[in-house]
Amino acid sequence: MTGTAIVTGASGGIGRGIAERLAADGFSVVLTYSGNAAKAEDALKSIQAAGGKAIAVAADISQADEVQHIFQAARSNFGEVTAVVNSAGIMPLAPIQKGDLQAFDKVIATNLRGSFLVMSEAANHVADGGRIVTFSSSVLGKNFPAYGAYIASKAGVEGLTRVLANELGQRKITVNAVAPGPVATELFLKGKSEEQIAGIGKLAPLGRIGEVADIVGIVSFLVGPEGGWINGQVLRVNGGFA
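Below the sequence we write its predicted structure tokens.
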């Protein structure tokens, strides 16, 4: 399957890796970003330099009109949307006891409300037989302290994913979630010592943290022709971390 793929949160990390891979797979890619235009431009140039087709769109996925703008830009530039990968998300940490409602609301707004808005728009615009991929997290299986808001948001995403798979089944659109474990992105590595990183890696039976390529390959599979019989699933891509 090829066509047009929307990838949210694609200015860096896993999202950028997905955008670059899907462009290499033959998709015309709409990569979205929020707040870091320079990184988005760099990702765009990387795709174009490799011969791919892509545009970058600034959007806050917690805002309905901005999500609508993403899909409008995709259709006006490349035509019918065939795949949507919602990898945008944030992860501020705080113990539940602290009662930081502002931080909680921010996480829910981006990770859960944003996912709902992207999924709703995708349901209205993805072509029959298309693919929708959301992002959860394998930290749901660990329940680490201070991850309360993040885990709540991602548990909600998993529920939405399963429901939407049932809602869109008659149109042969698959809806799945990818739930990575720790991945060696700039965001994850920032502020951690080599010892801390190694210790986290040992939590997985395979003895390392993930690489962006580990996640990118799974997304490519899910939106490709061989992923058509996987539907309503949460794929915990984590080396056995949880």
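The longest helix spans residues 101-125.
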